[in-house]
Design goal:
This protein has a two-stranded antiparallel ribbon with strand order 1-2. The relative contact order is 0.11. It is mostly helical and 426 residues long. It has helices spanning 6-10, 14-23, 35-112, 125-139, 164-168, 172-193, 202-222, 249-256, 260-294, 307-346, 349-359, 368-376, 382-386, 393-409, and strands at 150-153, 160-163. Helix 4 packs antiparallel against helix 7 (202-222) and helix 7 (202-222) crosses helix 11. It is built from 14 helices and 2 strands, in the order ααααββαααααααααα.
Length: 426
C-alpha cells in the first residue's frame, strides 16, 4: 500500500523525518476498507469450487450420453434381429413355395406325358402296397431272395428265409411269438446303448436291422388278407385280439423324446397327409356324383333291349369303376408313404426301438402320434386340413408328391439317424 524510499533512508537524519512524517501518522488506518478483501476471498472460493461443479456436470452429461447411446445401440440390435427373423421366415416360405411349384410342374409333366400311376385292380392293391414297402426297406438293408418272393429274418441268430405267402397266412400265435422275439432283441439293444448312443455303437446297427425286419414281417402279414389288417389289435403275447383301444399316446410321445425339428417335420407331414386325403375324397365324390344320372336307364319299350345303349352304359360304368379303383389305390399309397415317412425317415433307429418296447404287447404304431402332437401345438383339425387350406387339388397332389420323393430317397445312409423332411428348417 505504501513503500519506503531507499534514497531518503540513506541520508543522515532523513530516516527519522520520514518515519515521523509517514509511519508515525496512524491516521491512514482509518481510511482503509477491508470489505474488498472479503469479496475477493468469496470470489476466490467461488472460483475454486466452480471448476469442481462444472466437472461433475460434464461427467453426468457424459453418463447420460453414453446411456442414450447404449439404448440406441440395443434398439438397433433388436430391430436388426427382428428384421433377420422376418427375412429368414420369408426366405423359408419362398423356398417351400419353390419346392411346391417344382413338384406341381413335375406332376403336370407326368400328366402331359401320360405317366401318372395307372389304375390298379382291387385284388392287386395289397400286393402293390407290399411291393412298395419291401422295395424301400430293401434299400435300407432288408435281405430278400433273388426272386423277391421271400425275405430273410435273422432274429434267431441265423438267416431264416420266409416266403411272403407264408408270412401272410401265418397263424396269429406264430406271428405274436416272432414279433415278441424282435421286441426282446430291441430291449437288449436299448440296455446296451444306454448312456452311449454314439453312431458307431454296434447296438444301433442291430436296432435298425430288427426294426426293418419286423416292419417287413408285419407288412407282409397285413397285406395277406383283409382280416390280417387288424394286426394293430393283436396281442403279441398270445395272439389274441384286444377288446379295447391302445395305451396313452401322450406317454408314447414323451417316451419317443422327439427333437423340435422332428416335431416340426411330423406336423408338416400331418398337414400334407390330410390335405392329400381331402383331395382324394373330393375326387371320389365327383366320380360318385356323375354315376346316378348316367346309369339311369333310358325309357325303352318293354322287352326291347337297346343293346347299343346297354353297351355304352357298361363302358361308362367300367370307366367309373376304374377311376374309383385308382382313387382307392392312391389313398392306400398315401397311408403307406405317411407311415414309412414317419417311422423310417423322421424317427431314428433308437426311437423305433423305444416305440416297439414301449407299446408291447401291441405292435408299434406311429400314426397316433400325428394327432396328439397336433393337439399340443394347436394345429388345425383333420377336417380343416382336408378342406385344402386354400390350395387347389393340383397343388395338394404336388405337395404330397414331395413326400413320395422323400420316402423313395431314403437309403442305407439314413439307417440310424433322423432324415429331415423340411430341408430348409433351422
Amino acid at each position: 500500500m505504501f513503500a519506503l524510499d531507499p534514497l531518503k533512508l540513506q541520508q543522515p537524519g532523513a530516516e527519522s523525518d520520514y518515519m515521523s512524517a509517514d509511519l508515525c501518522n496512524w491516521d491512514f488506518l482509518q481510511n482503509l476498507d477491508f470489505a474488498p478483501d472479503l469479496e475477493i476471498d468469496n470470489a476466490a472460493i467461488s472460483q475454486v469450487s466452480a471448476p469442481h461443479s462444472s466437472h461433475e456436470r460434464q461427467k453426468e452429461r457424459n453418463r447420460q450420453a453414453q446411456q442414450r447411446a447404449r439404448q440406441k445401440k440395443k434398439e438397433r440390435s433388436q430391430n436388426i434381429e427382428c428384421q433377420l427373423a422376418e427375412t429368414t421366415s420369408q426366405l423359408q416360405a419362398l423356398k417351400l413355395r419353390q419346392r411346391q411349384l417344382e413338384a406341381r410342374n413335375h406332376l403336370l409333366e407326368l400328366a402331359a406325358a401320360n405317366k401318372l400311376p395307372v389304375s390298379v385292380p382291387q385284388q392287386n392293391l395289397q400286393a402293390e402296397a407290399r411291393g412298395i414297402v419291401l422295395n424301400i426297406l430293401e434299400k435300407s438293408g432288408l435281405m430278400r431272395s433273388q426272386q423277391g418272393n421271400a425275405i430273410k429274418l435273422t432274429v434267431h441268430g441265423f438267416d431264416e428265409e420266409m416266403k411272403l405267402e407264408d408270412i401272410s397266412s401265418m397263424p396269429h400265435a406264430d406271428l405274436a411269438k416272432l414279433y415278441t422275439a424282435y421286441v426282446q432283441k430291441q430291449a437288449q439293444c436299448l440296455l446296451q446303448v444306454e448312456g452311449n448312443s454314439d453312431s458307431n455303437n454296434p447296438a444301433l446297427a442291430e436296432m435298425h436291422r430288427w426294426s426293418v425286419e419286423s416292419t417287413a414281417m408285419l407288412i407282409c402279414f397285413a397285406t395277406g388278407s383283409t382280416s390280417n389288417q387288424l394286426f394293430s389289435w393283436l396281442n403279441m403275447k398270445d395272439g389274441t385280439l384286444f377288446q379295447n383301444g391302445g395305451g396313452d399316446p401322450a406317454e408314447l410321445l414323451a417316451a419317443m423324446n422327439y427333437s423340435e425339428s422332428q416335431k416340426q417335420d411330423i406336423l408338416h407331414l400331418r398337414r400334407l397327409f390330410y390335405g392329400k386325403l381331402g383331395q382324394l375324397s373330393r375326387a371320389r365324390a365327383a366320380i360318385m356324383d356323375q354315376m346316378p344320372a348316367a346309369v339311369q336307364s333310358s325309357p325303352v319299350p318293354p322287352f326291347n333291349l337297346d343293346l347299343k345303349s346297354t353297351a355304352n352304359k357298361l363302358a361308362e360304368t367300367q370307366d367309373w369303376a376304374e377311376q374309383l379303383c385308382a382313387n382307392r389305390a392312391e389313398e392306400s399309397r398315401a397311408y403307406l408313404f405317411c407311415t414309412i415317412c414317419l417311422s423310417r425317415g423322421i424317427t431314428s433307429s433308437l426311437q423305433q426301438a423305444v416305440a416297439m418296447v414301449h407299446q408291447y404287447p401291441r405292435a408299434a404304431g406311429y400314426k397316433v402320434l400325428l394327432d396328439v402332437l397336433a393337439q399340443l401345438h394347436n394345429e388345425p383339425t383333420k377336417e380343416q386340413l382336408a378342406e385344402g387350406s386354400g390350395l387347389d387339388d393340383v397343388q395338394l397332389a404336388a405337395n404330397w408328391q414331395a413326400v413320395v420323393q422323400y420316402v423313395e430317397s431314403l437309403g442305407a445312409k439314413d439307417a440310424h439317424g433322423y432324415c429331415r423332411l423340411i430341408k430348409d428348417s433351422p
